[in-house]
Each structure stands twice: as structure tokens, then as C-alpha cells.
Specification:
The complex is a heterotetramer of chains A (276), B (302), C (333) and D (294). Chain A has one domain: Rossmann fold. In chain A, 36% of the residues lie in helices and 24% in strands. In chain A, strands 6-7-8-3-9-10 form a 6-stranded mixed beta sheet, with helices on both faces. A 4-stranded antiparallel beta sheet of chain A has the order 2-1-4-5. Chain A is globular. Chain A starts with 21 loop residues before the first helix and ends with a helix. In chain A, strand 9 and strand 10 form a beta hairpin. Chain A is α/β, with parallel strands linked by helices and 276 residues long. Chain B has 2 domains: 133 residues, D-Maltodextrin-Binding Protein, domain 2 (3-Layer(aba) Sandwich), CATH 3.40.190.10; 116 residues, Periplasmic binding protein-like II (D-Maltodextrin-Binding Protein, domain 2, 3-Layer(aba) Sandwich), CATH 3.40.190. In chain B, 38% of the residues lie in helices and 22% in strands. Chain B is built from 10 helices and 15 strands. In chain B, strands 1, 2, 3, 4, 5, 7, 8, 9, 10, 12 and 13 form an 11-stranded mixed beta sheet that branches. Chain C has 333 residues and is mostly helical. Chain C has 2 domains: 31 residues, no CATH class; 222 residues, MetI-like fold, CATH 1.10.3720. Helix content of chain C is 73%, strand content 3%. In chain C, a hairpin with a 5-residue loop joins strand 1 and strand 2. Chain C is flat. Chain D folds into 2 domains: 39 residues; 251 residues, Orthogonal Bundle (MetI-like fold). Chain D is 73% helix and 0% strand. In chain D, helix 1 packs across helix 11, helix 3 runs antiparallel to helix 8 and helix 10 runs antiparallel to helix 11. Chain D is globular, with a radius of gyration of 23 Å. Classes of the chains: A alpha/beta (276), B alpha/beta (302), C mainly alpha (333), D mainly alpha (294). Chains in contact: A-B, A-C, A-D, B-C, B-D, C-D. Chains C and D meet through helix 3, helix 5, helix 6, helix 7 and helix 8 of C and helix 1, helix 3, helix 4, helix 5 and helix 6 of D.
Amino acid sequence: MQSVALQPVTMKTDRTKLVDSPDFQRNSVLQTTNLSVYYGGHCAVDQVSLTFPKQSVTALIGPSGCGKSTFLRSINRMNDDIDQCRTEGEVFYQGVDLHSPYVNLHEIRKQIGMVFQRPVPFAKSIFKNVAAGPMRDGVKDKKELQRIVEDSLKKAALWEEVKDQLHTSALSLSGGQQQRLCIARALAMQPSVLLLDEPASALDPVSTAKIEELISQLKKDYTIVIVTHNMQQAARISDKVAYFYMGRVIEHGTTEQIFTNPRHDQTAHYINGRIG
Amino acid sequence: MKKRNRITVLAFVLLCTWVVAACSSTKANDSDKGEAKQETEQAAEPIMAVGSSALQPLVEAAAQQYTIQNPGAVINIQGGGSGTGLSKISEGAVDIGNSDVFAEEKEGVDASNLVDHKVAVVGMGPVSHPETGVEDVTTEELIGIFTGEIKNWKELGGVDQEIIVINRAKGSGTRATFEAFALQGKEPMDAQEQDSSGTVRKIVGETPGAISYLAFSYFDQTTTALKVNGVTPDRKSVESNDWEIWAYQHMYTNGEAKGLAKELIDYMLSEDVQETLLPEMDYLPVTGMQVERDAQGTVTKK
Amino acid sequence: MHKELSQKSDYNLQVSPISKGEYMMAKMIKETEHPLYRKSNKMRMERFGKGLTFLSVALAAAITAAILFLVFSKGLSTFIMNDGSVKDFFTGTTWNPAEVNSLGKPIIGALPFLVGSLAVTGISALLSAPLAIGAAIFMSEIAPKTGKRIMQPVIELLVGIPSVVYGFIGLTVVVPFLRDLFPGSGFGIAAGTIVLSVMILPTVTSLALDAIQAVPRSLREASLALGSTRWQMICEVVLKTAKPGLMMAVIFGMARAFGEALAVQMVIGNAAVIPHSLFEPASTLTSILTMGMGYTVMGQIENNALWSLALVLLLMSLFFTITVRMIGKGKSS
Amino acid sequence: MSAKSKDQLATAGLYVIVGVIITVLAGLLGFVFVKGLPQISWQFITSPPQIFQEGGGVGPQLFNSFYLLVLTLIISVPIAIGAGIYLAEYAKDHWVIRCIRVLIEVLSSLPSIVVGLFGFLFFVLYMGWGFSILSGAFALSVFNLPLLVRVVEQSISSVPKSQREAGWALGFSKWETIITVILPAALPGIVTGVILASGRVFGEAAALIYTAGMSTPIIDFTNWNPLSPTSPLNPFRPAETMAVHIWKINGEGIMPDAAAISDGAAALLIISILFFNFASRIIGNLMFKKMSAN
């Protein structure tokens, strides 16, 4: 992954008055500035500015309909295909504004992988599911594909369970396995950022635990942004937390600080309501 | 996947080359015939004969025999009805236009430069359901039946059974001839119509009290061929013109017949068609006719 | 291009996240072909794909437009060139285009055919709709597994049987059967209806099946959870939600029946009169069209009159298609 | 009457309905097979038809039916898939698109005689291909297009939107997503559509009378060079299919055993339809497995 290390300087916006500790900014790889998303007239995401430090898990929490999923989707421009949806502000990734018209959309989505709420395996074999990305990317020779598939499945902690049935249909896997297959499929593109949109909300507790454990492992080499309704999950696996309400970031800081003494009473209410 | 994509492109390219080859090969027909010529000397340009479905079996049988004698000759015969045949030949789109009516009788067909070749004669006669109990009708009775004045077979001395009239399709040559010579030009009543002889034969054979008209080649045991004014419908009575309900089968060419078209028409008038093939198929040889008839229907002794 | 870039983003000091220097740095990065800016051949493939598919749609639409133009131009020429009167056409009951009536206009009364066509289509739809919807319900609710395995080949086979064979069987089985039971020669609207309803059965069944299967599973389970029996669930939930789809299926079947030619021509008797009963020979637009086309000379009044029949057929199928669209759009949005 | 008994009554009613349909089909097939099967012999299947003697066969007609079907599918399936993809994926809800949809649907309810005549005027006369397999194949493609486009569009739009988003999230372009993800998932639906369409091609007669013609010149099955006039593969020779042959025999056949030949031909036609449906079902599954499994 050829990346030009460009450290954007700390960001100060009048509205949120957040002061980030210096070390977070220095190694943040993804940063949004005044990002707003409008569906026709309705403003779903309002002037959100967040930084996502490298090798860390940032959890986006908030009541449903607060725009956290919309915000997540606008990072790798998945909202582009929804008509009457307008995005303003910038998303800086490695110093490049992803919303500028000159950037290659497909390149962005390769480097910023995404996993959805419900597992979405292709109607293909397990091998072909994971190999679909690289093959489309021009990787031709069999051994190289075999290596990528094995490596991705190992990273997604699925290799042991499927290594001898690689050529059966992916639809025969369980819900949790299918979700990990989707993660493996995203990892096969060698992304540097992973966006997870409530990855475990459609899974049973056992699979959810597996996914959470996998995420905390992936933290070592990927920057992860996860949208979740599950407070315990956020507390367990995230390093930073941002609390969204009505499309705006009310509070944003390290997990300990948010969960022990949140600065805004709104955040406190939400967290106590959910955990208390 | 790359491979999948290549397949769709390949299929598309295959389709284009096929169409291009197809179009080019029509242009290459001349060179094509050139080769065909070396292969078989007499083979001429493939010809197309279109028209009357009544004449089609005869021309097909004759063409089949002709190609056995000189292989390589390609004769395509299509049906489509006398109307199509006449209009196509007058436009010069085909080599031979088959028709069972005179070109002059069809409006809209410019018969000026059409050359008529009468190759056979088709006799037609009224046929009825076997159990009507009537064998012979006079012309007036026939007109009465088809115009709807006579409603029941018992009025003709047959069984008490309602008469069911089945006409032929409005534009067909068979209907035009029957109305002209059997009904003396009277308009038949509005009744059930069928255009194909096979269907008419089946309906008349199975519907008690049904009556219609067919060409001699369609007579069989399932229907009774009625005698008119005591004359039995067969080859002798037509040749002597005692049986007036008959029509020439015309093979029109645009201007003088030439090439394979001429050879085919000459073959049609030759012995092995007029004497052997025609009787087998219940058509009547034109050479045997003792009378001549023109488009207006005036008969002259030959 | 860079000048345009800077104006467009009207670099605004207060809000901008990073200093002006950083911003210029970002733009320079574009010069060094940062991977994110590289134009991939995906764009070319995308344009190729979209172009290819648009070409096929355009081709399909062009062919259709050509056919419609042909039918309209020839169909209208009866009224324009051979000055046939439209009123006669829809009200007259005698059809003899070659002759001219007292006013010097060709006799083109197509009412008998219209009545025949509508009667045959309507009644066959009434006859085959319950059968088809019943089969569709059977295949999706009562015995999905076996139903699909038996009925799917049955449907595919019924579609495959040529209309000539349907007509032939109609002639040898249906007509004699009707002749023995009812007065008349067995030909007529009744025979045409029986043959047609069997012919459109597969079309209506497969479309009804799609409509029923489009009803989400959760609706069925919700209704069953309320303690309703399967039949109540089918009536209240499945049929109600699938109603537009089922209507579409029946109307599409009618459109198909309206256009059927060969089979109907063999059994309906082709009499150019308005039938007084279902068992009298009648005729439909398609039967007269098929029968007469071979015998008429292109360009003549008789031929143009037949094309006007084809035009009426076209307008009727346009009417069917638009009602189908309206039903579909009305309910589903 | 309690709801329970009403339910049982209704279920019984549905069984009756399905029973009626199956008996109707069994009656149809029984009638055709009882009369037709005794006719079918190797000689009947291979020998060319006789014009007026007995013992005619349907060899060339059977070959023409299959050859015409293959040509029609080669022409109409790619176009239909292309059109289906565009209408399902790229078409915005623009009035032009709505017009095209109505146009294509009107085509499907047009009587085939009208399509046949269009084929006659355009392919036979204007393009100068004459009465030939090619004009027949193009006419049938036109006749088949609406059904195929409709089926392809339906099976593509029935693939859930989440599959598309999954594809985009992997960095695929719209076209790549269609080719790699959506087409394979929609394949079973497309195969069913192709089967229904080929059933209609087999059974079609009216459209072919004026395009592929009603006569079969002598073809020798030894000469396979497509350009020579007597070879079976030459797309420019007129070719009468089984359905047209049945129509012609019933209409104008003067050979004494016309009825027997028509029954035999009808039985043979239905057997070949059964065979074709079965074969394409298997090929469809194979393609789906190959595309998705290994």
C-alpha cells in the first residue's frame, strides 16, 4: 500500500470546540471536515468534523436516525448512487479530498473497505467470493489468488472452518460465517480503512462475540470505523467514540472519557439510558 | 470476471461476422453461381416461384422431378396465395407467379407485360356430407343452396337435415371460379368461410348437412362429389366442357420466360408432367382440353 | 485545470481544516499521480458496457417503432387513400372491401370482427383466470416443492405446443363435442374460447405465480400468527397484496389471446356476421387477417383494409399494455 | 361453516383445479401421442417429405426447426440480455424509457402474422435475403424479443440491491458489478425465460409463412459448407419448419396420408420441445454451478 504520509494539522471548528490531544492527530489517516449530507431538503448529517487515528477503532453511537450510518456511507461515497443526495465538505484520506471530482472512485473503495449490516455473500463459491475483487483487479495467476484468498480468510478468522470446502456455495455458511466471509472479501482488496455498518446487529450472540474479537485483532493493521447500537460492544472494542444526535456530533473523545465522565449531559443521558 | 466479459464480446463479434457474412454472401451470389456452374454445367440461377397454394403442390412435384434429372438446379416454390403471386410477379420481385385466376381478373395487377403460361387445368365441384341423400343437383338448385334460398336437404329429395354452407376465403381463386361458373356470378350468402382445402374437406366430411366446393385433387371417400345437371365431375367431362366449373392454372412470367424459369415451364408442358404426373395428382392436362377459354369466360372450340 | 480547481473550492480561511500551504500541497500531490487520482480503465469499460446495453435497447425499440410505423401507415391508408369512412368501419356489419356502397365508399364494416375478438378474449380470460390463479396458489402455497416440480414442466410444455396443433385438436375434439351438445355446427365463439383459454393458461399462470411469490414471506407468517387458517391467509393477505400483479397477469393473458390467429381461425368458422349465440360461426380480427392476407394484392383496398384490422389489434394491445402499467404503477408506488 | 372446514374445502378446490389442468394437458398429449406415435419411425424422422405419394417424412423440417431455433436464440438472447440490463440497471425513470417499455410490450401482444408480414417486407424484400432461414430467424427474434427482455429485466431487478452495494463497496464499477455479481445470480431466471421463448419459436407458424417460406429444396446432409445452396447450414435457403409443415399439410396437403403425417409431426414436435426444455434446464444448472461453484 503506497501511502504518502501527510499529517493534516489539528482541526478547530467553532461549533464543537473539541481539542484533540496532539498524538491522535499526528497519526490520523482519515479526517472529515464540515461534512454534511442532504437528502433533497432534509439535512441528515450536519457539519461533522472527525479524525480517525491509524490502527484504532472509532465507534459511532447515537439513537437510530441520527445520521451515523449516512455519515459512514458518505466516507466511501456509497451515497453517490442515491438520487437527490448531496454531500458538502471534505473527507481527507492520505491528504486527498475523496469528494473532489478528479479522484478515482473505484480506487477509494478499494482502499476503504465496507461491510454491511446483513451478510451479503455473492451467489458463488467461498473461493470465488473472496477472489472476486482481486480477479477483477487483474490478478490472473492461480497461485497468487490462492495465496490472497487463504491470507484474507485467515485474517477474518474463517480459514480453519472453511479451508476444505472452499468450492462449496457461500450461501451454505451460517450467518456469522457469512459476515466474516464479507470481511475477508473486503480484506482481499488490501484496504487501509474498514467501515463496519452495525456488522453484528443481525447475528446471534456467539457470532457477535467472534466478530468483536476479530475486530480487536484487525485493529493492529487497519483503521476501523464502526457504527453500532450496542453500548457494551462500543465500550469493549473501540478506542474513540463519537456520539451523534440529529446529524451532529455532540461529543467526541476517547472511550474511557466518554463512558466515565461525558462532558455533555445529553451524552450522559443517552449512555445511562442505554447502560443504566 | 475477465473471462465472462470476453464471452459477451465474443458472442457479439460472432453475431456481427455472421450478419456481415450473410449480407456479403448475397452479393457474392454471382461468384457463387460461377462455382456452381463449374460443378454442374446446366445449373442456372436459382429461381423463385410464389403464389397460389392450390398450384403449389403441382409445381413442387414437377420441380422435384426436374431437379432429379438435372441436379444443381435450385427452384424455390412458396405459397402465399394467388394475390401475392400476381403482385410479386408484376413487381418483378420473383421469377414465376403462380395463380389460379387470370391476371386481368385481379385489380391492381398490371397484367400488361405478364406472359401467361397455362400449365394445367383444375376441375372443381360441389361436395357434400355423405349422408345428405342427394347425388345430383341442377345449377338452379346449386344457386339456391349457396344463396340461402334452399335451407333443407329434404327440399332436394334428401334427408331432413338443415343445409350448412361453407364458403371459401373471399380472395381465393377457387371461390372466384366457382362463383363465376357454378353460380353464374351470383353472390353467395354470408356464411362460414375456410380458406384451406384440407380443413374444408374435414369439416364437410364430419358436419351432417354441410356443403362446400373442392378441387378434384381433394375428392376422397369422406365427402360425396355432387353431379351437376347429370354431369359427373371427371376429366372427360371437363375436357369436353360439359362440366364448366374448371380453371386454368397460370404460371406468369414478367416478359418472355428465360433461363431456368423457361426450362421449368417447358418441362411442365412436357409429356412426363402432363401425361404421368398430372393424372396421378388429379390435375387435368391442359394439352387434353378441347376448348379454349379467355379471361372474360368466352369459350371457343379448339 | 488547476486554476479552475482553486476558484471552484474558493478556499476559505476561517473554516478550512488545514493551512493554505497544506492545501497547495494536496493539489501538488495530484501532479505526482497519487494512486487515488489515477484514471483506471474501469471508466472505459463502464462506458463500453453502458453503450453496448443502450445499443440493444435502442435496437429493440427501433424494430418495434418500424413495425408500428408499417401498421399505422398501411392501416390508415384505407381511410386516407381509399377514403373508407371510419364510422362505417366501427359500425358497419358487412365486410366486402372490394365492392363500393351507395355513397361510393368501400364496404368495410369491421364490427363483427371486433365483437368476435372481444367476446372470445373476454370469455377465455374469465375461463382461464380462476384456473391459472388457482394453479399459481397451489404452486406457491399448498405444495410448493412438488407443485413446482410437476407444474413448471407442464407450463413450459403448454407454451411449446404450436397453435396449429391447438387448432387441429380444437377441430377434431372441441367442435364435434360442441356440435353434439348444442345446436349448430359446433363452430363459433364457444369453440374459440375453449381453445384460447387453454392456450393462454400457461402465460397467466406463470405471471400470477410471479405476482404471488413477490408477496413477502413475513406478511404470510404475520397472518398465520394471528391464527387465521391457510385459506384465510391466502384470501386476506396473499391475494390482496398480489392483486395488482394478478390483474396484470390476466390482462397480459387477454392481450396474448387477442393476438392469437391460427388456432382461432380453424375453429371459429370465420363468418363475417355478428353472432347471435355462442354456437354460431363468428370471426375475429386475427382470423380474417390471416385468411385474407395471402389473397390480396399489396397496395389494393382489400389489403389496406386488412392492415386496418391489424391497426385495430395494435391499438387494442396498446390499450391493454397501458392499463397493465397503470394498475402496476397505481398500486405499487 | 367453520373456518377450518372452509380451509379444507378451499384446499380440495385447489387440488381439483390443478387436477383439471393436468388432465387437460394429459388429454392434449394423449390425443397427439396416441395418433402420432405409431407414425414415428426412423424413416419418418429422416426422409424428406413427399408431395403427393405416401410415406413422406419430416427430416428436413425437423432439422430446420432446430437450426432456426438456434439462430433465433443466437440473435435474440444477446440483444435481450443487453436491453434487460439497461432497463433494469441504467434506465432512469425518464419518459423516453417509459415509452420504450410500452413499445416493447405492445410488440408482445401483436399477432404473429403482423410480425411475419413485417419480416416479409423488411428482411425478405428490403434486405434482399429472400425467403430464407435468416429472414425467418430475424422475424422470430423480433417476435421473441419482448418476452425475453421482460424476463431478463425481471430476473435482474429481483437480485437484491444489497448485492449491488456489496459489489460497489469492493471497488467494482457498475458494469463490473453487473457482469460478476448480478448476471450469475439472475441466470436461473434468464434460463427459464429462454426456455419459454424457445417453446414459442418451436410452435410458431404464422410468422414464418412469409419469411422462412413453405418449401424445402433438396438438401444433402453431407455437404456442410454454409455457402453452397444445397448445404443444410446455408442461411439463405428457404426452410419450412415443423409447425409450418403441419399447417401446410392440414391446409393444402393432397398426399393420401396427410392426416397421419400431421399427427406424427405434431407428436415429434412435442417430443423435441420436451427434449429442448429438459436440455436447457440441465445446461442452465451447469452454467450456474460453473459460474458460482468452483
